[in-house]
Amino acid sequence: MSEENIIQLDFSEEMKTSYRDYAMSVIVARALPDVRDGLKPVQRRILYAMKELGLSPDKPHRKSARIVGDTMGKYHPHGDSSIYDALVHMTEDYSLNAPLVDGHGNFGSIDGDGAAAMRYTEARLSKPGMMLLDNLDKGLVDFLPNFDDSEKEPAVLPATLPNLLINGTTGIAVGMATNIPPHNLREVIHAVVKIIDNEVLEDRETDIEVLEDRETDIEELLSIVKGPDFPTGAMILGTTGINEAYRTGRGKIRVRAITNIEPMQNGKNRIVVTELPYMVNKARLIEKIAELVRDKKIDGITDLRDESDRQGMRICIELRRDVNPNVVLNLLYKHTQMQDTFGVIM
After folding, report:
1. Is 94 considered catalytic here?
2. How far is CA 81 from CA 85, 90, 120, in A?
């Protein structure tokens, strides 16, 4: 090898530069969503590929394998399993308030069951998913060349829906992470309208809109958006965590399952759980309760059944005659995910 082909580099400088490039790539082009449309690159590319395939809500579902193939071949040259996982997540009504994809077939469950293989399932865009893509042909967003310069893809979607807040998101990059909870669609839209109304003051006599540069303060927004609204329901304990999260960008929100104590015919009681905290796996929770009973950490539970069906969730915990149901309930809150903490990172 000739001397002129050797480049002298300081090792620490090279490590610093290379690691910074890698970190920026993970932050910008993989793990974190864009604040404008609330999507990570893989999600944006899947939705755009579906639009290109003409999979609008009024058209028939198409095989997931076809959608994944198009996304991978044209826009996202990474593993097909990661693309399919992202597609599956966008169908989950127990993860998102407004699922962006309408799935047909076995797309998994709140019990942690995985989706069927992509050759068996089918999908098309849902109405909220379509709203993110509306007016894409009106020149509202920039189009960039794809990885091999053979196609163009949108840098961001026009997104007539404030998707980031409505559906929430989670992502771990390098040196930073995000964990935004889902919010109520109606409240978020009302908050957006409030901000616009404060910016634009209409002159009623001349019908001319006058820009009034008035900032919307956080008190106004907190009176509209009361807090997160989780698709699985459950109850948020107190407002301290919510206030902290919205004012500082970080906060811990404590969420508790919705339960009822029902008397039974034989003088016994049962605890019935109808809603669980966000992202809690129902099957694993039931296993955990059974484990606590087996290890004698919780006394007085005689039977444990999952009676959930298409109508909704129902976990039955039958108790002995001589135990106080409220004591057992408090032990369940303490030792299981029937009470959980959602760490907000905005």
Report:
1. no
2. 6, 14, 14
